Amino acid sequence: MQRFLLILLSLLSWPSLHAQVNEIGGTIGACYYIGDLNPTRHYPRDTKMAGGIVFRHNFNDRYALRLQGLYGTLQAYDSDSPDSLQQLRNLHFRSKLTEISLLLEINFFKYRLRGKDGRKWTPFVFGGLAYFHANPKAQLDDTWYDLQPLGTEGQGTSVGGNFYKVDQVCIPFGAGMKFNLGRVDVQVEWGLRRTYTDYIDDVSGTYVDNDLLAFENGPLSAQLADPSGLSDVPGPTQSGRARGDVNTRDWYQYTGVAITYIISRFSDCDEQYNWMKRKH
After folding, report:
1. Handedness of CA 11, 17, 18, 20 (dihedral sign)
2. Is 77 helix (H, G, I), strand (E, B) or coil?
3. pLDDT, average across residues 141-145
């Protein structure tokens, strides 16, 4: 009977025997955007501060599920580019970023496991799914304007398509290191976000005739669609020329440090199991 109770208790308490704990805390770091205004994928231009909150549920010493909220800023300026063609295009944008993600973490080592096999640190990788909100704006005469409703690439006009969405999903993935300091964990990570939109920056396709934009979407749309000044020069118009790269999608990156506090440890089943095992 005692053996049966031992086996039953071990099965019921299996998750807790493998360091099932919950953590809550915050993260702070920096993010930057990768796209038509910053095409160099690994060059952190226009990096801005970002941060948020973290909740992590550890299934065992190898796997954890993280719920995370991030808030930051994405921006880029053609005027800061070393490329003379980008400087001539003279586009820019700024967008407040809000992200909510659900991430699976996989530890390389048996993290926080009690005994000689356990480690107080481990590398880890992560991946998952995220919702994000990014509404690009541009500045004109000291005022910032929402670009999406202006249809700067002809959206909403007789020659354009539908307006793009400012609420999107993306695939976050990356790697990092974890360190356990008793009831406190410290995580350092680097991660990319693969999005399914090319309009984080409001730039994707081709120029639309500025006169048509001004007539159908208003003069503000025409001004922000082509601030290069070339449309005012006599000769061929910009209409139909590439404004961005329609064959690519935008990305963004977040690097940060998270500090979390363990709010639940091993359950009482762990102690009961060890007591019954000693008695047996």
Report:
1. positive
2. strand
3. 95
As a whole number of angstroms, the distance between CA 154 and CA 163 comes to 9
Amino acid letter, 99: E
Q: d(Cα 164, Cα 168) in Å, to the nearest integer? A: 10
| Domains of the chain, each with CATH number or no CATH | 2-279 (2.40.160.20)
15-45 confidence digits (pLDDT tens): 444 447 899 999 999 999 999 999 876 677 8
pTM summary value: 0.83
The DSSP letter of residue 85 is: H
Cα(269)–Cα(154) distance, integer angstroms: 64
Phi, psi of 223 (to 5 degrees): -65, -45
Region 260-266 average pLDDT: 79
Tokens of 38: 């910053």
Q: Could you tell me the two tokens for 240?
A: 């139909």
Interior/surface letters 88-108, b for 16+ CB within 10 angstroms, e for the rest: ebebbbbbebbbebebebebe
221 in Cβ contact with 161 (< 8 Å): no
d(CA 229, CA 252): 29
Backbone φ, ψ for residue 150 (5° rounding): -80, -20
* Helix (H), strand (E) counts: the chain: 6, 10
